[in-house]
Amino acid sequence: MPNVSVVVLCYKAGKSVPDFVQRVRQALEKVSNDWEIVLVGNYNQREEASDPTPGFVRAEAERDSRIKAVVLKKEGMMGWDARTGLAAATGEVIIFIDGDNQMPPEDVEAVYNKLVAENLDMAMTYRSVRQDSLVRRLNSKAYNMVFRCLFPGIQARDVNSKPKAMTRTLYDKFNLTADDWFLDAEIMIQARRHRARIGQIPTVFRASSDRKSFVRFDAVLEFVKNLARHRWREFFAKRS
User: What does pTM read for this prediction?
Assistant: First the structure.
């Protein structure tokens, strides 16, 4: 069992995969010599011929035995991809991050150090500087405000920010089910339920130059519905 596993969500990352992996590798080698990287290159069957990502992911795994490739026909969205990657991770500390270069891979080192130095259950970033669109920034601000209102006491300024690092002990307590973009919120809700100690560090969130965002306006509405549904479940869980 390695000391640390990093799960990288590579959906449609294409030719940027090798450079991102190299930067993650360099970050990991600063904190541990016992690590693994899990690359999630799941694909839509109808786009299989035009998406080179699975090939890049498999090639990285062939070059380094410490790298695992998870390449499956998609049965869901980001949440499903993340859950397939997290299930393949075997480390005592598990970190996951989007592989689209919007969140610096060097933050892997920072959240790991935060987690270990302060003996936390989870360490994560918050986007203190955002270079994406005004609409996305406003949506994110409103979403985090609603989240904190519905789940008071949550130790997170920016629910959807990554990388998130967590101990194996905390991860094993989770029962993650989200198939969509709600997975980050589901993690934070369950971390709150288990009274996890959470630390945060600032990061710079860069605009995506390679592809458009996969989060549409209807996904924002779905977020709000999911929050309300989970708040309802939490209410009845406390009463039972």
Answer: 0.90
Closest of 66, 56, 83 to residue 28, by C-alpha: 66
Complete DSSP assignment for 75-143:
SSSHHHHHHHHHHH---SEEEEEESSSSS-TTHHHHHHHHHHHTT-SEEEEEEEEE-S-HHHHHHHHHH
Q: What SS3 state is found at 185?
A: helix
- Phi and psi angles of residue 8, each rounded to the nearest 5 degrees, phi first: -110, 120
Nearest alpha carbon to residue 204 among 109, 101, 123, 114: 101
| Residue 175 phi, psi dihedral angles, 5° rounding | -125, 80
Neighbours of 220 (CB within 10 A): 16
Residue showing tokens 């499903």? 80
Taking the C-alpha atoms of residue 116 and residue 212, their distance in angstroms, rounded to an integer, is: 35
CATH superfamily of the 4-239 domain: Spore Coat Polysaccharide Biosynthesis Protein SpsA; Chain A (3.90.550.10)
Write the DSSP assignment of 20-59 as a string of letters.
Answer: HHHHHHHHHHTT-SSEEEEEE--B-GGGTTT--HHHHHHH
Mean pLDDT of residues grouped by 10 in the chain (240 residues)? 97 95 98 97 88 96 98 94 98 97 95 98 96 84 86 88 98 95 94 95 84 56 74 62
Could you tell me the residue ranges of all domains in the chain? 4-239
Which token pair is 222?
């779905």
